[in-house]
Amino acid sequence: xxxxxxxxxxxxxxxxxxxxxxxxxxxxxxxxxxxxxxxxxxxxxxxxxxxxxxxxxxxxxxxxxxxxxxxxxxxxxxxxxxxxxxxxxxxxxxxxxxxxxxxxxxxxxxxxxxxxxxxxxxxxxxxxxxxxxxxxxxxxxxxxxxxxxxxxxxxxxxxxxxxxxxxxxxxxxxxxxxxxxxxxxxxxxxxxxxxxxxxxxxxxxxxxxxxxxxxxxxxxxxxxxxxxxxxxxxxxxxxxxxxxxxxxxxxxxxxxxxxxxxxxxxxxxxxxxxxxxxxxxxxxxxxxxxxxxxxxxxxxxxxxxxxxxxxxxxxxxxxxxxxxxxxxxxxxxxxxxxxxxxxxxxxxxxxxxxxxxxxxxxxxxxxxxxxxxxxxxxxxxxxxxxxxxxxxxxxxxxxxxxxxxxxxxxxxxxxxxxxxxxxxx
Length: 425
What we know:
6-stranded parallel sheet, 5-stranded parallel sheet, alpha/beta, single chain, 14 strands
């Protein structure tokens, strides 16, 4: 049963404690990466057979396989995928940055170019559930950014096939290449390249502990989006909130993973009691009831605050991945929210809306990292190059100052490079 904590009656560490994955896979992942770097495709085929029970002849998904998958998907779901993709494109198109130039002083030109990365790699999990939403969310911003190529990896089933809805989403998103690869070995292939899999410049997408550790280990050889932890939801709710709605929203995250975190912060003890009871009624009906049960019992909590203002302060300290504001006039509180991955405003905006259809990205900072990082966006798929131009006269105006500055740092060669052109004039 989810526990109820009165904020001023418990230790802060009880309120702000987070679930942690204590499984250490560092050595196993390092061995897998080393094997892929050394043996390339051979290692990948062996890992597919070992971990996915799939004996493959070819790692890359063919055009025929994609077309077959699209034909197999319910047309109604295809239409929903297309609507979701359109909403994601509409939202992320507003994030496109522009290059700029500054030329407001005689003889001086400065600027910044926005350049898309050449090749992005997208990891899409397999396992207990299929996530076509992740395909759309993580590839569409890369396409909008202008990446020349988007490469997707996702683990096959034992028959060597990819879930049709994953391939359908990839087709709608316009992903360029798809490979039947999962786990740390897929991350290694993207990071270093093999005979079949091209090396990418950045890897994005969620995964299990092995995938997260692999992303950590290859960082530097490639860029990564983030090290994602267990999924989280925090709901700030007032006493008018329907407890059935709050309980359903909490369970929408609890069913993700046994380590997922579902937290309610309210100023109403009556709501706290009602939500606790409602969760117990709703769990047995869930398809993933066993997972939700563990998540709620181990990591769930209801925190009773004195006021809604205090509830917002608690939310900011926790810095959740998803934050719901189940209150009247939610925009009155938006400016007070400083740390959250994505905010869902009002009583008619369940977090699931953001997972699938609304348009803002669902790849979000977890484990409190919303205090210093952001949702996946078009910015993740571009880099910036700056440039500077000075005429001889413009350099002459500042050369002595540059040299003086350099000497303060003990760098006489820097100083000389600034004034040598003046000496030769």
